[in-house]
Amino acid sequence: MSHLYRMLIDGELVPGTETFDVVNPATGASLAPCPKADAAMLERAVAAARAALPAWSAMAMADRAALIDRLSDALEARASEFASLLTAEQGKPLDQAMYEVMGSVFTLRAFAAMRVEPKVLRDEGGNRVVEHRTPLGVVAAITPWNFPLILLMNKLGPALLTGNTLISKPAPTTPLTTLLFGELAQAILPRGVLNILCDQNELGPRLTAHPDIAKVAFTGSTATGKKVMASGADTVKRVTLELGGNDAAIVLDDVDPRRIAHRIYQGAMTNAGQICVAIKRAYVPAPMYDDFCDELATLARQAIVDDGSKQGTTIGPIQNKMQFDKVKALVEDARQRGTVLAGGEPLDRPGYFMPPTIVRDLDDDAPLVREEQFGPVLPVLKYDEIDDVIARANAGEYGLGGSVWGKDLTRATDVAMKIDSGTVWVNQHLAIDASIPFRGVKQSGLGAELGEAGLLEYTQAHIVNSVELQDA
Ligand code: NAD
What we know:
- By secondary structure, the chain is of the alpha/beta class.
- It has two domains: 261 residues, Aldehyde Dehydrogenase, Chain A, domain 1; 179 residues, Aldehyde Dehydrogenase, Chain A, domain 2 (3-Layer(aba) Sandwich), CATH 3.40.309.10.
- It contains 15 helices and 20 strands.
- The protein has a seven-stranded mixed β-sheet, with helices on both faces. A six-stranded mixed β-sheet has the order 9-8-7-10-11-19, sandwiched between helices.
- The site of nicotinamide-adenine-dinucleotide has 28 residues, from helix 7 and helix 8.
């Protein structure tokens, strides 16, 4: 691959002051050099985004929407190329990469179809009060490495539609699809409206503290999210934080374990488990525990673990070495405390491959149960009483997603109501789309992404309260 990747600053595609290697996680080999921005480039990007604001925010929303639609069309026209690149830098199987690319296309279209209208709050006796929604200014979108493209679109769509300008900073291990998207955007958006900067984790703190950045839209770990919040405090920045999760799936006693197990498996293993809302622990009633564990183990053994670019691969590598080492350590610890039924040994080949791993007989205080593993490893836990399992699901600082599985929908929904998470699914998991707001509670996040609530996060209320002048 000899493509020359460049950043986007003030409408120009620019090289970095230096480059660093982006690694293909399926081989461990270098994929492409990535340009790196220094502090001066960051200042240029912020200045360009500020300079673009007056004209961009003055445009009619429908005109901005038309440009977002054009971005969506341009992405769709090159979907295969984006999907291949996404697999190469992120590791996910090609069909899942295509799903992310097309999800990005639909997300942009969904936001382009939304509108924010002024709201008349009062209109009586000559007193008219109208709430307008105005843009915030320059937004920094900081994204992680698990879904580099769609997590940017979740921010870019609403930010640009509502008249803000944007600085995108992808994760250092997955910057290439973002840079390729910048090439599309350069031909479509006015200069300065979108700027893309790459780093090796140095620019985040500068962006989040910068006085000319009005809002930080962040997706990543809870530990970094806390730093983002602290760093923005000095200038009272708006922040939305989409952070980590430790989703529990609770299986009720009226289901056929063999029918439900494959759906729990998919919820845990898609994208090699590297999803903020992947199923990260499964709670199963004692009488069906053995059958359920065995079924999950069978599914895990059937997985085709390989380079995501190979036809038929169902699980690709873990995205980077640091995460690979973390997952390996969690599995080693779990082996001492419980029973590894399937997987558990990294593949003896280059790249960062951990086969799908099913662990049973752990206590809730095992690190694999308490922490966010963010990898293809699922602990399966036994329960006797429903109230007890609800309390166990709600333990811990996370509150992102979760699911309840049961034939009796009323009972399953009743349990779902008691799970302390931003989203709880019933008889499904990972059902996310651009029209439904997504948010974490507790330490899983702050503010909403997607849906009308997510759109309004990029605006501020501007109240105009007028009365008629009475002639004296
Ligand atoms: P991370 O927090 O390490 O990095 C995320 C981004 O923050 C990267 O672009 C990184 O360069 C940048 N960054 C690093 N230090 C920074 C700082 N001090 N200030 C500002 N930015 C900084 O996260 P990750 O390891 O890339 O992603 C995995 C995590 O993301 C998991 O915890 C996962 O659950 C979470 N995640 C959450 C959601 C969600 O919507 N809730 C979605 C996907 C991933």
